[in-house]
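**User:**
If convenient, please work through this fold.
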Amino acid sequence: MKKNNDMKRILNLIALIAIILLVGCKEDQNSLTLDKDSLHFSEEGGSQFISLTTDAASWQVVMDEQDWLEVSPRSGNRERGMITFKALGKVAEGKMTSVTIKAGNTEREVSITQEGSEYFYAFSVTAAANEFTEEGGETTITLRGDAPEWSAETSANWLTLSSEKGDCPTEITLTISANESGAVREDSIVFSATLAKRQVIKIVQKDKLFPSYNTNPIAPDNSNMNRTATQLASAMYLGWNLGNSMEVPTGETGWGNAKTTKRLIDSIAATGINAIRIPCAWYNHQERSSEALLSSNWLARVKEVVDYCLTNNMYVVLNAHWDSGWLEENCTKAKEYEVNARQRAFWEQIATYFRD
């Protein structure tokens, strides 16, 4: 019995010595601390960093090469290190990989992901103009970016594109037809490209602000028009201005002058003057301002004065003058459309009334 106990003690002692020898021979484990064990990039990519601390003499990054990811530096021999991870840009589909950081006999794994991009390609569309008058016209649409192919569509039959598909970058022409609808028109052109953000161009066309007064056009008549402008001007050797009369907004006597008579014009002609300028107001002599319709009574009165001159074989220069400043005080982009439309309506009526 005693012999068996001694044998057990001997075996236990041998096992203990073996453990001591194994522990003594085992290599110490190196420390390796990372401030992050994963990185996630948005679809735009960018740079992120991982700091490491180790007691190993050196460290290194072990990874499979990725065309969307750069890692630098890949190794170091300091107790502390900083590793830069750079996602190079957008990716059409989400990406995932992992890298191993080794320091001595210790290693850590870092997972890296990047979101896929819904809009992988750059794509932008701009129009040189978005608002048009009732007359229509053309404008240039510029398409930029690296989208491999684009297409365009619109439901508006008054908008016509020179091309409805193609490659970027390019320029196309948009044609807007005349607006005869009697109302403002608004519509859009939608530009699409695979893996690119859809672009929308909104087009607005104004309606006709005033009616057309060129309702009875006649063919050009060159009778008695065989002189050039210079020759005609040289024939006006002495002129006179009928001022502060027909251009007065409240009426031709509003600024103190008497009403213009044939006797007055006859006396002017008798001095040898052969040209008269008649500054004239129109804006304040509208029957309906909403239609830019001139007063028929005022047109007849102006014609009466013009006829006094023509009876004396005088040249007449008839214009629009000050007229309460409705034109010259509204020379702004915001008022451009209305001012031009009213100018056109006035002069269609004036030119038609005095053309004979």
Summary: Residues 2-25 form the longest helix (24 residues).
